[in-house]
Design brief:
Blueprint lengths: L10 H11 L7 E5 L6 H13 L14 H8 L5 E4 L8 H11 L9 E5 L7 H12 L5 E6 L8 H4 L3 E4 L5 H12 L3 H11 L3 H9 L1 H16 L3 H38 L9 H45 L11 H10 L2 H17 L6 H12 L7
Helix pairs in contact: 1-2, 2-3, 4-5, 7-8, 8-9, 9-10, 10-12, 11-12, 11-15, 12-13, 12-14, 14-15
Length: 385
């Protein structure tokens, strides 16, 4: 199985990357962008595997069976650095570490490949640290960055990268994957693929976790049932609580284990007094864990917002009579009732409200206040007005 088979619905991207992997002097920096769920990381890691593939025939690189392909995909190749953060930002110290490691000569392969996920999480000062290395990289180093869109990356960085624009796979393409990998019946696979809106990660989760589907249903029904400010406040509180609970559940299984591992590496037993230097290291770990929890909450809430957008999109589809297929077809009766008692102008305003809330979530705005304000807007226009 070729590594390129993992790029679902990305035929143009496959051709672009396969051609570059076969080149003796590929572009030294690449920026992978596209909608959430389009597979930026998968595409970048696939490209890294092809660049480091052992096949002597350039046209066959990305075979998926050689040792280099397999170790790149598992993240253990000596010449492949894959950085991902669970925090809200990538720090200057982390960027400096990338720059230092990028100077190393390849140990076993043709290239030194540096993959940095979520490059949009680099503040300007951090981006400037990385800029010099991307401007004048060693002749054997290739940078791969991922971000939601080119506009999310500092212009001086993106102007030095070759763009790779990914699209969301079609519903039929995602459904075919779900049938093959999860054994779903065709009608189930089609339903899950439509609900996931082409997002492969979401589709896999909905297909493998029944609770994920139940939680999504409860979220998307909220805008259709709000009748008062009190109900709007309650709805916002419920969604925030769910996101906090998910972050807490993750913390319970990871935080103590990480702390114990750090203490063991420093040579301490449980309860032993720490030196000032080592106390600082433990505090840094705790700060990183807090940032990770914040990231999980933010990502969860953004998924809720994306799901809520599908409801208003469906309502607008019914009101305008476009004939387009509903994303939430299992809620057709409720959607039709809501469409009958609201105006298209109000629904468009609601879509704009959700978009504004998603932007606010990328700042330091209070998530609770942002969600309360959004839910209140959903009931601001009286029915039929």
């Amino acid at each position: 199985m070729s590594v390129w088979d993992s790029l679902i619905g990305q035929n143009e991207v496959k051709h672009q990357l396969a051609t570059a992997a076969a080149d003796t002097k590929p572009t030294h920096a690449w920026l992978f962008t596209g909608p959430t769920g389009a597979g930026h990381t998968t595409a970048a890691q696939t490209f890294a595997a092809a660049l480091l593939c052992d096949q002597p025939n350039p046209a066959a690189r990305g075979c998926g069976t050689c040792r280099s392909c397999q170790t790149v995909l598992s993240g253990s190749h000596a010449d492949f650095l894959h950085f991902r953060t669970e925090k809200t930002v990538i720090t200057i110290d982390e960027a400096r570490e990338f720059v230092v490691k990028a100077q190393d000569r390849p140990a076993v392969g043709r290239w030194r490949v540096m993959l940095i996920e979520d490059a949009h999480r680099m503040p300007e000062r951090t981006s400037n640290v990385l800029l010099k290395a991307i401007e004048e990289p060693p002749p054997y180093t290739i940078w791969l960055l991922t971000a939601p869109s080119p506009a999310d990356v500092l212009i001086t960085i993106r102007s030095r990268c070759r763009p790779v624009q990914l699209r969301l796979p079609l519903v039929a393409e995602v459904a075919a994957v779900l049938e093959t990998q999860h054994g779903l019946e065709p009608h189930q696979a089609e339903l899950v693929a439509r609900l996931a809106q082409g997002n492969l990660d979401t589709a896999h989760k909905l297909a493998s976790d029944p609770q994920a589907g139940t939680r999504r249903d409860s979220v998307v029904k909220i805008p259709l049932t709000l009748s008062s400010v009190a109900s709007a406040m309650d709805a916002a509180d419920r969604l925030i609580s769910i996101a906090e609970a998910q972050a807490e559940a993750d913390a319970q299984t990871r935080n103590e284990a990480e702390r114990a591992a750090l203490l063991t590496s420093l040579g301490y037993t449980d309860g032993e007094k720490l030196s000032p230097t080592h106390r600082a290291q433990v505090r840094q770990l705790e700060e990183d864990q807090k940032r990770r929890a914040k990231r999980i909450q933010t990502d969860t809430l953004d998924r809720f917002l994306a799901d809520i957008q599908t409801v208003f999109r469906d309502v607008l589809t019914l009101q305008m009579g476009t004939g387009a297929e509903l994303i939430n077809a299992h809620m057709a009766q409720q959607l039709q009732a809501y469409a009958a008692r609201t105006r298209p102008e109000a629904v468009l305003a609601h879509l704009q409200t959700v978009a504004t809330t998603r932007r606010r979530m990328n700042t330091n705005a209070s998530a609770r206040l942002a969600f309360e304000a959004m839910m209140t807007q959903f009931i601001a226009s009286p029915a039929g007005s």
